[in-house]
Design a protein that fits this description.
The chain is an all-alpha fold. The chain folds into 2 domains: 47 residues; 206 residues, Orthogonal Bundle (MetI-like fold).
């Protein structure tokens, strides 16, 4: 075989990287265009910094306040991640209960809908009063924000196993636990990850909202303080920092999803 036909791992990696850049080119181009237009508009129309700071001013503020932003963002993300894990775990557990107990579903599902219908801003002050100004209320709000979409998706996923598979498992004498482990669990995974990708962002929003109602640390407190001080550059800096962290959390879920959904049909389901 000719050496020209041998492709090294480095070449494969470079090819994938270039392909990924090509895929991202429209998004990157739009982002740069909006930033350039924003910067130009601020300069041309002499917009005051307290109303709309230029992207360059926001970048300078982020660099100057990088340590403070990082510390507060870490506190918020800790609450968001904990709430995401707790909310997802509780929702999946409840969905499994619903699968095997229609009575439990009829009794508890209306309460889940009620919890979803209550605005987070209405719950946050109560949880702050009950749980204090530490990490607990933020974790609770983040968990509540993640709970309902994960519950609904998991219930649907657990019940999407095709009839032929269930009949085959019944014929070979599989128990309920074996049917769950070999069929229902894998059927539900794509739905769980679909909900997790949504919940990863709502968990961060929930944690920040909890900080609005009272907290000592967190990116939400930075946003509230900047608003009171009319420091628009700091306000945008906090928003940018929280947005970047939320995007990273989303793609972390995507990576775990790609590792977990290893069978061919899973990619088709998602």
């Amino acid at each position: 075989m000719s050496n020209d036909l041998v492709v090294s791992p480095i070449q494969v990696t470079i090819a994938r990287f270039v392909s990924r850049l090509v895929d991202l080119a429209p998004a990157i181009g739009l982002f740069v265009s909006i930033g350039f237009a924003w910067e130009t508009a601020v300069k041309v129309f002499s917009i005051p910094a307290y109303l709309l700071p230029a992207p360059s001013a926001i970048g300078v503020k982020i660099w100057e306040a990088r340590d403070m932003l990082a510390q507060n963002l870490a506190w918020t993300m800790a609450a968001a991640v904990l709430g995401f894990i707790i909310g997802t775990a509780f929702a999946v557990s409840l969905a499994i209960l619903f699968l095997y107990s229609r009575a439990a579903e009829r009794a508890l599902f209306p309460w889940a809908i009620t919890l979803k219908a209550i605005p987070i801003l209405a719950i946050a002050p109560l949880l702050t009063i009950w749980l204090g100004f530490g990490l607990s209320p933020k974790v609770a709000i983040a968990a509540i924000a993640c709970f309902f979409p994960t519950l609904v998706n998991t219930v649907k996923g657990l019940r999407t196993v095709d009839r032929q598979s269930l009949e085959f498992l019944s014929v070979i004498g599989a128990t309920k636990a074996q049917t769950f482990r070999h069929a229902r669990f894998y059927a539900a995974l794509p739905y769980i990850f679909a909900a997790a990708k949504v919940s990863s962002s709502t968990a961060v929003i929930g944690a920040i909202v909890a900080e609005f109602t009272g907290a000592n640390f967190g990116i939400g407190t930075v946003i509230v303080t900047a608003g009171y001080q009319q420091d628009a550059a700091m306000l945008f800096s906090a928003i940018v920092a929280s947005s970047v962290a939320t995007i990273l959390m989303f793609y972390l879920v995507v990576v775990v999803e790609k590792i977990s959904l290893f069978w061919p049909e899973a990619s088709m389901d998602t």
